[in-house]
Amino acid sequence: MKSYAKLIASMLIWGTLPIFVTNIPCSSAETVMWRIIFGTAFLLLVFVFAKNKSDKAMYKKWTPKLIFTGFFMGANWVFLFEAYKWVDVSIATLTYYMAPIIVMIASVFLFKETAGKFKIIGTAAAIAGMVIVTGVNVGGLDPMKGILYGLASAVCYASVTLLNKSTKGLSGLEMTIIQLIGAALAIIPYNFLTHTGPWLDLASEAGVYAILVGLLHTGVALFLYFSSIQELPAQTCALCSYIDPASALIFAAVLLGDVLSPIQWVGALMILGGAAVGEIFGNKKSSAS
User: Fold this and answer.
1) Which residues of the chain have a pLDDT value below 70?
2) How far apart are CA 105 and CA 107, in angstroms?
3) Are 22 and 83 in contact (CB under 8 A)?
4) In whole angstroms, how far apart are CA 152 and each of 1, 241, 268, 286?
5) What phi and psi, each to the nearest 5 degrees, are found at residue 251?
6) pTM of this prediction?
């Protein structure tokens, strides 16, 4: 039960992320920079105090690849935070959760995985759901721009998943720390080269939100997530992962005033349900065979 509680807590924390990000009045790249800095610091402290044994050979083998993957991780967050600025949080969240569908499709071509009936049904349902959600009135400053940013974020997130697929011998915590460092190597110089005006005052209310995004939504949530998935079945983790977007939709409706029409709710259920069916039942069938 403790492991379940940690996993669910991490998903609920991530579900509140848009509420924090939309209250940070700075560029998406700068918000990501603070997230990476504070999140990495927290996870490094966890790693040091955990006193885990490290395999130097595995570090030497996988660090270059994970640093490269970190670039996509950083870009993923930049695109997602930018999507929040241009389209309703609920729509941005739904476009972001096309990532599992992209992974399913790419796996067929990259890893020669078989596309069973559950994966095909799930993929078709999610794509149809996306057409429904985005084919009706969508709120935001520039909905189409927001949707494109959300889809770009999904592509980057899927790329991280696909690149990590063959990485063995390192714990999830170790992989994430290295990838965060890789993201920092790209995001921090980019910010210093492109930033104009004053930097975010970390002592201000917006600064506190930025710090919390780093410590809570990156450091604490990832720690809870990694410590729980080591003790729970993979199928349980896959199912519980959909608590994140579901809770994000609820929080956006209650706290940010986002409203989905009945037909959009149908599309949302098709996206999340299709991804869940393809990931959970499709993988379950593959494991059984």
Assistant:
1) 115, 136-137, 234-235, 238, 279-280, 282-289
2) 6
3) no
4) 36, 20, 19, 29
5) -60, -40
6) 0.85
